[in-house]
Amino acid sequence: MSELEVLESIFPDFIASSTDQSESFLKFEIPVELGEPSDVILINDTADSDALTLSLTSLPPLLLHIVLSATYPTHDPPGVSVRSNHSWLPPPLLMRLESMLRDMWTPGEGVLYDWVEFIRGGRFLASLELLSLPSGALKIRHPSPQHLKSLLAAYDDSARFASFSQGSYPCAVCLTTIKGSKCLQLSCTHIFCRSCLFDYWSLCITEGNVEKLGCPDPECVKNGRESSEEEIARVVSEQAVQRWRWLKEKIMFEKDPSLVHCPMAFCQAPVPKPPDSESDAGGDRLRICPACSFSFCGFCKRTWHGAVQDCPISHAETIVLEYLSLEDDSPERHAMELRFGKIILRKLAARYQEEQLNKKWLAASTMACPGCSLNIEKSLGCNHMTCARCKMHFCYRCGSKLTPSDPYIHFSTPGQRCYSKLFDFVSEDHEWVPFN
């Protein structure tokens, strides 16, 4: 078997050849496999700018045009010229690589296999002094690093997908080995078949358990790892994705009563309360939509009118308070109803009274998280609380922040306000009494 036939049997995807009577013209397209993810640093060789860094497992192929004379391999080496896809390797280095390949030939011995392995395994990178020690990062100079970064990242993604699709992997749910093209590898590196993920995620979305929508692996379930929207959209239908978004938003509003919807009809995104807002100056009313950047008042839902200007809602509250202070059949009350509308005033009054009752209940039955101000109610257990939204550790009795590494020192240090009061108990008259 000739050297070319051996190469075609080992690397069928690398070689395309055409032969005439006198010479053989070969074309090798050899991808550069880095193995484990490696840092690649792109440096602008024409201007001073910050270097770009990305992690890759492969580089675009090098194209080898080879001419085999009739006297190869006995007397003459192969003629070779090298090009790089996307021009990621500059011409001076390509010329050095051509010289290295010719120097690898020994009279009387074939050298084509050594060339393929020298390039495919990336050994030529060290010979071209592209690897920086001791980190082992690959440094590439290019006139447009940003453009080259997108090309290298796109090729690496396509190469990893092609390699993944050709393999077979065991699914931990159905316990069968399935072709990679019918599987999905999650960001946590666990692999499952698409059919099992579809059944599991669709059931979670249908039943409203979107907080469990993640990797089915027991370790990931224990850690509460959630899947990204991109992963979910690759498995379930678009209708299921829309329901998933709606449920996530609903849960977010339930956990944070201060969230409001953006008033723009085309947006409607949830807008959180700004951090470190100044309530006395009216800054707590300012909302800036993270989706469309619309600035508006969180009370009246109109374009932001500034902290100094009075909000229309504040006038409405004054009218309601005056209305509630009047007797039911008084002439003043009838006059207000004629002026503003009886139904409107009664709705505003009912809403105001409901809000006051909610505020009273929250003040009496909950404790605000010192980290994000989320109101939390304790039904049983100890006074060490962990906020479900911001993960802040705090004391339910006094509202103090606790040290995450040792939260119980707050209850075990003599002289502290909550010393020896980790637990409360209910007395016979159903009032909460601290346990000393």
Automatic annotation (TrEMBL):
Residues 167-422, 171-216 form the RING-type domain. It is a single-pass membrane protein. Gene3D superfamilies: 1.20.120.1750, Ubiquitin Conjugating Enzyme, Zinc/RING finger domain, C3HC4 (zinc finger). It is found in: Membrane. It comes from the Eukaryota. One of its GO terms (molecular function) is ubiquitin protein ligase activity. It catalyses: [E2 ubiquitin-conjugating enzyme]-S-ubiquitinyl-L-cysteine + [acceptor protein]-L-lysine = [E2 ubiquitin-conjugating enzyme]-L-cysteine + [acceptor protein]-N(6)-ubiquitinyl-L-lysine. PROSITE patterns: RWD, TRIAD, ZF_RING_1, ZF_RING_2. The keyword Zinc applies. GO terms for cellular component: cytoplasm; organelle membrane. Its main location: membrane. Residues 2-128 form the RWD domain. Pathway: Protein modification; protein ubiquitination. PANTHER family: RBR FAMILY RING FINGER AND IBR DOMAIN-CONTAINING (PTHR11685). This is RBR-type E3 ubiquitin transferase.
